[in-house]
Amino acid sequence: MKTIREWRDNMLRLYNTLTRTIEDFKPINPPNVGIYTCGPTVYREVHIGNFRTYLMADYLRRTLEYNGFEVTHIRNITDVGHMRRLDQENREAIDPVIEEALKVGKTPQDIAKHYTDLYLKDEEKLNIKKAAKYPKASEHVKEMIGIIKILLKKGLAYETDGTVYFDVKKFKDYGKLSGNTLERMDKLLKAVRISVETDKKDSVDFALWKKAESDRLMKWDSPFGVGFPGWHIECSAMSIKYLGDTFDIHTGGEDLIFPHHEDEIAQSEGASGQHFVNYWLHGGYLLVDSEKMSRSKGNVYTISDLENKGYEPLAFRYLTFMTHYRTKMNFTYHALHGAQTALNRLRADVKNFDKPKIGCAEFEQRFLKAINNDLNMPEALGIVWELVRSDYPSSAKAESLLKFDNVLGLDLFQSQVGSRKLQVPQNVMEMVREREELRRQKRYHLADQLRNKIKKMGYNAIDKGKGTEIKKI
Ligand code: AMP
Ligand code: ZN
Q1: Domain containing 254 — which CATH number?
Q2: Distance CA 222, CA 219 (A)
Q3: How does strand 163-166 pair with strand 32-37?
Q4: How many CA atoms lie within 13 A of 240 on its CB side?
Q5: Do both 280 and 292 map to the same domain?
């Protein structure tokens, strides 16, 4: 029987950017939890910095599942409007990658599909669990227009010559996430005297809908004229559509706190009149060799770049565990090398373990406490190594590690479930593990049923002494 103290100590606690404190996690409708993660812009390859942020969302989700919650995770695909993006001086600039693709006759849709497919493959290589849905911005323009119409009707937005702006001064809670309140912004803007879009009532206002220039490639009809949505409105539209007016958790990188997430709150709460999101989680930036990644410096790395140098994507996953998600992380190949070596060693140790049997309660308790303490993965990893080096019987270590790997997602038992080279899909791997568990419990009938299911997915699961060998049919 757990004491209240123990129960509280092990309860999931998360740092909430909204309140700037670590809070107990209380879902709206337990055991269900809704998470929305701002997804990639698919006009160029998604880089390892983006993946650090998506990995954080993945181990958040896995931690919730480990705690018994049922998670609906939505990750959008940004595939509209930003065929032109603002450069650092706030001028519109066309991305050189897009320019090249257009020159060789590709459509914006071709480009978006190409990079979306690459992104999904990389996600799989990193053992990032599939989202319940990957809504595309281009397929939700109707929903965005719906929100803009409500905002206009409520007097929270105004239209000038085919462009619609959010009237920030009308939304009293503006600034509650980022601390950039109207007062502060006014001072800042006055100090630098920027007013790029001169038809705004106020320089703090942001666009909900923009009038299309004649050379714009992706544009839509709307009650406000032919145009395209502002960047922030897509996330309000898609998160509300799939998770409701109020949902549990929203994640992104720290650069999105302002203006993207602040503006999402203004639009969503302005339109629905409801509180938008209960917990805002933001991941720290990834730097390369202590510098910001940038194309001009040639230090924007992708997962394929790491693979081409001989590293497993999962070594990068391991590496991200070594820094707490809110702290900036410095990527170097030297550190990746260390992570790969550690991962190989861990797998080699696991290979010699006996069959999993009754885990180590003490370590399981400590592991849970670490991940539930605002996803303290560096500590969790330390506990993993302590367990491996401990005097517990290897069957107990195996049992506990098998559990931990549901959160770590490092395929620690891959040697027992087939070679990585086979590229067995994650869902098949999960079924194989589940089947091994059933066999251990001597529930052979259910195990056989699962074997048939695996077969239907194109793989033969062959029982071997210590585990399962998987062969593609
Ligand atoms: P973007 O495609 O630029 O909208 O970025 C997608 C996600 O990656 C957002 O959540 C960003 O905050 C995040 N992100 C972008 N660059 C980095 C970086 N260097 N380190 C960590 N996260 C990043
Ligand atoms: Zn977003």
Answers
A1: 3.40.50.620
A2: 10
A3: unpaired
A4: 24
A5: no
Q: How many angstroms separate the alpha carbon of residue 53 from the centre of ligand 1? A: 7
Closest listed ligand to the CA of 39: 1
- Give me the CATH number covering residue 328: 1.20.120.640
| Pair 165, 59 in one domain | yes
Exposure string of 265-298, with b = 16+ CB inside 10 Å and e = fewer, is bbbbbbbbeeebbbbbbbbbbbbbeeeebeeeee
3-state secondary structure of 423: coil
**Total of domains in the chain:** 3
- Domain end point (choices 250, 284, 318): 284
Q: Which atom of ligand 1 is nearest to the CA of 50?
A: 8
- Tell whether 400 and 456 lie within a shared domain: no
Q: In the listed set 265, 284, 303, which residue is the last one of a domain according to the structure?
A: 284
Same domain, 277 and 359: no
For ligand 1, mutation pick of 255, 262, 294, 303 (most atoms within 8 Å of CB):
255
CA–centroid distance, residue 151 to ligand 2 (Å): 19
CA 235 to ligand 2 centroid distance, Å: 5
Residues touching ligand 1 (Cβ under 6 Å) are 38, 40-41, 49-50, 52-53, 252-253, 255-256, 283, 285-286, 293
Q: 250 C-alpha vs ligand 1 centroid, how far in Å? A: 14
Nearest ligand atom owner, CA of 75: 2
3-state class of 472 per DSSP? strand
Tens of pLDDT along the chain (473 residues) come to: 455 555 556 899 999 999 999 999 999 999 999 999 999 999 889 999 999 999 999 999 999 999 999 999 999 999 886 555 444 444 455 666 677 777 778 888 898 999 999 999 999 999 999 999 999 999 999 999 999 999 999 999 999 999 999 999 999 999 999 999 888 877 766 655 554 556 888 888 999 999 988 777 788 999 999 999 998 999 999 999 999 999 999 999 999 999 999 999 999 999 999 999 999 999 999 999 999 888 778 899 999 999 999 999 999 999 999 999 999 999 999 999 999 999 999 999 999 999 999 999 999 999 999 999 999 999 999 999 999 999 999 999 999 999 999 999 999 987 544 334 445 666 777 788 788 888 878 888 888 999 998 888 888 888 866 567 777 77
Residue bearing the CA closest to ligand 1, atom 8: 50
Same domain for 176 and 133: yes
